[in-house]
């Protein structure tokens, strides 16, 4: 049977930056994210006894090499859980605005987990799906759920995602400022490992992140945009500080990233609540109230052009259908 899953990407407000266990992918800290409506992956999977190897087509291109191996390794986990041996065809489409550079392993592995598990005859709960997606990519653990979600440390069974506020239907938005859409030099998998093992600030990162978890959860439940933004911006800068203090140091942020981060600070001084968060790349995501879109955009247009700004809102959890 063919199954198709749609999973949306998510942006972490408290970041996942370091693995407690690299083999099964468990994190050193709790991360909290917002799933977005604008960016998602559709993936169709079917297992076929006549195949002699797994096949992977992404955005109409046949994929080989490392990316195919990553998908095959993930399918091995699904095959083992389902007790089947046949290879699979995987067809994926990333729905990301052209050249946004936001193709994400979160939506990719969440959608693959959903479609492959169903196609293999498994009927997993959302928690079980989250655990499976985690073994493909850590951030995918959270993309099973809509709205705000968290992913906690733990063991193979307990380190899973859960919804915090699935229907985030109050005014919050995330504007992505695309600064560079090129492949990054240091991938997040290698980057987080290097920061964790060499930065003298890493232990402080874990300690501070632990303190931020309950503050963030309370702020989300209280719909408190300013506190959410303040904690998210601090957490992002702390994550980037572990990279800049790694040995040798590395850095994802460019001069343009800093221009946008400082612009957000200036707007705050004028009373507009807008906060920056940055992942393993130079793009900046601005957390704000939709009512302030125009004034933020006007300030942004002094730094970047209109087509470099993509606005997104809270999105839904995974959807899986036959066919
Ligand atoms: C996050 N990032 O929480 C953090 C913030 C990037 C910066 O999760 O090694 O691709 O596959 O588990 O999920 C990116 O890391 O890493 C990421 P793996 P992943 O969203």
Automatic annotation (TrEMBL):
Boundaries of every Diphosphomevalonate decarboxylase-like N-terminal domain copy: 7-156
InterPro entries: GHMP_kinase_C_sf (IPR036554), Mev_decarb (IPR005935), Mev_diP_decarb (IPR029765), MVD-like_N (IPR053859), Mvd1_C (IPR041431), Ribosomal_Su5_D2-typ_SF (IPR020568), Ribsml_uS5_D2-typ_fold_subgr (IPR014721)
Keywords: ATP-binding, Lipid biosynthesis, Lipid metabolism, Lyase, Nucleotide-binding
Top-level lineage group: Bacteria
Gene3D superfamilies in alphabetical order: 3.30.230.10, GHMP kinase, C-terminal domain
Pfam families recorded: MDD_C, MVD-like_N
GO molecular function, one term: diphosphomevalonate decarboxylase activity
EC number: 4.1.1.33
Family: Belongs to the diphosphomevalonate decarboxylase family.
Protein known as: diphosphomevalonate decarboxylase
Name of the coding gene: mvaD
